[in-house]
Amino acid sequence: MSLTNSSPTEAARSARIASRKLAILSTKDRNDALTAIHAALSEAKDVILKANAQDLALAERSAESGELSQSLVKRLDLGKKGKYEDMLQGILNVRGLEDPIGKVDRRTLLDDGLLLERKSSPIGVLLIIFEARPEVIANIASLAIKSGNAVILKGGKESTESFKAIATVVSKALESTAVPNEAVQLVTTRDAIKPLLQLDQYIDLVIPRGGNELVRSVKVNTQIPVLGHADGLCSTYIRADCPKDMAVRIVLDAKLSYPAACNSLETLLVDEDALKTVLPAVATALLSKGVSLRCDAPSKSALSAALDKHDATLLQDASEQDFNTEFLDLILAIKTVPKGSSPEESLDFAIDHINKHSSHHTDAILTLEESAARHFQDAVDSAGVFWNTSTRMADGQRFGFGTEVGISTNKIHARGPVGLEGLAIYRWRIDGNGQISTEYGTGGKQWKHQSLPVGDSERLAANDEELEVLREFRAQKAKFPAGAS
Amino acid sequence: MSLTNSSPTEAARSARIASRKLAILSTKDRNDALTAIHAALSEAKDVILKANAQDLALAERSAESGELSQSLVKRLDLGKKGKYEDMLQGILNVRGLEDPIGKVDRRTLLDDGLLLERKSSPIGVLLIIFEARPEVIANIASLAIKSGNAVILKGGKESTESFKAIATVVSKALESTAVPNEAVQLVTTRDAIKPLLQLDQYIDLVIPRGGNELVRSVKVNTQIPVLGHADGLCSTYIRADCPKDMAVRIVLDAKLSYPAACNSLETLLVDEDALKTVLPAVATALLSKGVSLRCDAPSKSALSAALDKHDATLLQDASEQDFNTEFLDLILAIKTVPKGSSPEESLDFAIDHINKHSSHHTDAILTLEESAARHFQDAVDSAGVFWNTSTRMADGQRFGFGTEVGISTNKIHARGPVGLEGLAIYRWRIDGNGQISTEYGTGGKQWKHQSLPVGDSERLAANDEELEVLREFRAQKAKFPAGAS
């Protein structure tokens, strides 16, 4: 890692050059670099915490004068019990993940001796912009190295001293490894973001990790593809047949387990027929935990009648704007789904509401009826479409990715929780022995276009006919020079 | 298809609404729509050719006054023998392709009764901007319907009457199908492109199909992701050990079979040791076909000595700019790869040259040495990295995709020749029965994160243990209501 004082253009250009070297390193070379970083950061704990204390002292003064929030100051503190160790463990966890690079996921025999393969490769150069938490830098550097991508890091100014100390340690650690120093660059100058966002000749992907405002400002200022999400307006739809206990359990988890998270529940849709049967128990539980309920007219009227007097006085009226709002707080908007003339009509009403108002992040349906769930999952155009579980499940760790690069509401490349795989793309390889395009087609040779097994299916198809074709191709390739010309 | 006179915003908004309906249609519904379009266009051939004749007459007048090129006029002519029939056959070909929608390609058992699946879905709304050829409209409409995406089409103004006639026929044909009319919209007003490119709330992906200038102007004017390529500067590297016959055969195909294509050869790299052994035969063959050779000093000197007197006088000097130029013409730049101190050094020189100068479209190496080919394929950062074959193989039809949406030099989503699959993204589905996030983790339940077979491996793993787990999950789901809450 180099702590760069050079111009944004120089930083990006040198990252591009380093990315070429990093891209061809073996899995072992990249893993060894993570081992070296882990060891160096373990050893330098005192030095880094000392730098972190400087950031903290400055932040506390800003908090006293009201410029910074206390919660931000807390997030800065690397000395908090277990935090430094978690950061170190995170590096080892990334090291332990499957290598996302060099995997063949498509294989077609175009003709005898002419094999097409699609093989994963790094994207190139990433620009990752993040906010306060200083431990994120170790996580991001690990992800980039593991996936063979060079990365330019721009962190929040409140962590400057911590970042510099970590970068110095990582830089020294990389010297003993095959990973070039310029493959991980830390930019600390405040005004570097805008020029970096213009460098689409060197930077392939921008990942803003932070709030809504950061993501929006990145998106409008660059032509480089941006991976991430500005909003997380998640909904859950309670169908009339949903068991009361399941509804209470799931809605409480979705709203309360981390209200400031992007996968938390913001809008509850409830079937008209569930307003008096399922909703009262859900509302009572939420109110007892201090959640403000912003109800439309039918749900307010039903709850006013069903709840005890004290709870009923707490109910609020929803405005139209509430159904477009990501509260990130102990507030929930409740929308009634009219009965309509059929169960299908109410289902479509809920789907339309979600497609119109949600941020296409994660939405859930709670029902015992499989056909309703399937229709919901087909028709709701969100990254996550869940049945009988909490929207909070939308998370890379929970999905089993081992780590999370971010959550994407993009419609291309990667959608939903993004693991290491989201930092890879592919190249098309052809191995031939002299074939040319004009010998195929009308009057000429015919394409075989035979799909051959890859990965798991290759392993499983031990006796499969298709595997024989692949073996044959490889055997011929081994005798290759004789076959050429 | 509607031939829209409404505002760009209205067109995009109605396409978005139609896309929701289209997205949930069955494979059969979408295929039936293609059958209907095919039948209607077959029947309306005379009407459409009459409209096309109007375009042609206007274009011919413009060609006489020098405003349009004769080659453009030729491309406009739908009446040319076989062209209309090819257009019709193209619709049936797309109909016959495998459905890219609804395929599960990732399946993880998160816990008992909690299954995560990644399932392909349409992207949403496409904006496709294309130039003269009127038959392209039928192809694009077919691809969009097949992949469940709504599409807004903006074609070149020279084909306006042909487009209108085709749109009217397609629109009427769609009335009898499940595909909503607004799912395919033709915009004919000239000034609609810029406003459409601003509508990122309705449009998910822009595909410019046309020249360099069109692609560049689209890219700088939108924040919507753009799929395509501006340039196709493809190279081929002849190693010293390459058999002469193979080099001649492949280079001629790559340069001559369609010089104006993006996958044609523009720069030839030649090992110093091949200048007198392999290159003279290649150069003689190219010169005899009228190709101008722009040579660097070592290659010119070697060829001047090796070629006959007449051919030698035809050799030209290369400027630095020639190695950054996509000629799209009978011109080839030749660059010598210095011998260096080892074969690895010369290989790296060629790789560096390509990474710096090529447009990351398709590059090839010609050698008998597998290790050199593998290093080239790992280190050259292009969509296509080919060994002993022609760069002209970079093509969706040749890859076996059945059709081609375009060729992408993007670093995310889709790279190289893009088939129908490039018009799909995915959603993450979870099927649960009441699980919540807070019951997992420290002190709670443990995640299973068991990867289960999908697609081919599901078929092949008929007796595999993992398949048993999947069968068990499905059996339990069938008895579902009892298991809930």
Automatic annotation (TrEMBL), chains A, B:
Residues 9-286 form the Aldehyde dehydrogenase domain. Pfam families: Aldedh. One of its GO terms (biological process) is amino acid biosynthetic process. The keyword Oxidoreductase applies. It comes from the Eukaryota. It catalyses: L-glutamate 5-semialdehyde + phosphate + NADP(+) = L-glutamyl 5-phosphate + NADPH + H(+). Keywords: Amino-acid biosynthesis, NADP, Oxidoreductase, Proline biosynthesis. Catalyzes the NADPH dependent reduction of L-gamma-glutamyl 5-phosphate into L-glutamate 5-semialdehyde and phosphate. The product spontaneously undergoes cyclization to form 1-pyrroline-5-carboxylate. This is glutamate-5-semialdehyde dehydrogenase. The lineage of its organism: Eukaryota, Fungi, Dikarya, Ascomycota, Pezizomycotina.
